[in-house]
């Protein structure tokens, strides 16, 4: 049973964390990023996709590279790439119950937009569980895995990092929170499209871990249920 009795602030990434990668939402976002670059920079599809992934690896997000090198408006980019179909995403009653049982504050911390987080969390039936959504705009467009957005998040919400746990699907994105003193949980996925992502930047799969990862789970709801039970026993 994971000992999270010290946790007062529960921080969740959004995509491929609050929902599983098998839901196929991120491949839609990925395809729209390629289309945005293709159309805006007048490139062919293959060239646009290569550039997209190159910027993702070098800058943390494709958008950061486009902002830095092509003066792309971030809000326009976010609005375009998050225009996806989430009709198949169903309410997750188990996750909702698990979140309800957690003591303390709950946050979504995403490299996406507030609007996208609200749409997805709303479809999952868990939006009401969160005290706030900290998105890429709130971070000053500095993306995870950079340290700066984590520091800004903790400072703006007056959070002692030792009282917080971060749930993430990308191993690299847990390095900074670990260094800052947060407990880290890696959420694993299992979907065929993961093979197409850059190795160091793809959502984690079974067997993935690192020294800066405290806990690993392939079932977020079950992990939260166990964690809340452990907290109840400890108290």
Describe this structure in words.
It comes from Hyphococcus flavus. Pfam families: Hydrolase. This is Pyrimidine 5'-nucleotidase. InterPro entries: HAD-like_sf (IPR036412), HAD-SF_hydro_IA (IPR006439), HAD_sf (IPR023214), Pyr-5-nucltdase (IPR010237). Helices cover 41% and strands 11% of the residues. It is α/β, with parallel strands linked by helices. The chain has two domains: 9-20 and 88-234, HAD superfamily/HAD-like (Rossmann fold, 3-Layer(aba) Sandwich); 26-81, DNA polymerase, domain 1 (Orthogonal Bundle). Strands 3-2-1-4-5-6 form a six-stranded parallel β-sheet, covered by helices on one side. Helix 1 packs across helix 2 (45-59), helix 2 (45-59) packs across helix 3 (62-70) and helix 5 packs parallel to helix 9. The mean pLDDT is 93.
Shape: globular
Number of domains: 2
CATH superfamily of the largest domain: HAD superfamily/HAD-like
CATH architecture identity of the largest domain: 3-Layer(aba) Sandwich
Quickly name the level 1 CATH class of the largest domain: Alpha Beta
Query: How would you spell out the order of helices and strands?
Result: EHHHHHEHEHEHEEH
Mean pLDDT: 93
Helical run tally: 9
Do you know the CATH topology of the largest domain? Answer: Rossmann fold
Instruction: Note the gap between the termini.
Output: 14 Å
Number of strands: 6
Classification by helices and strands: alpha/beta
Biggest sheet strand order reads 3-2-1-4-5-6
Low-pLDDT residue intervals, each spanning 5 or more residues: none
Helix content: 40-55%
Please give the largest β-sheet. Answer: 6 strands, parallel
Sheet-strand content, in percent, reads 5-15%
Structural Rg: 17 Å
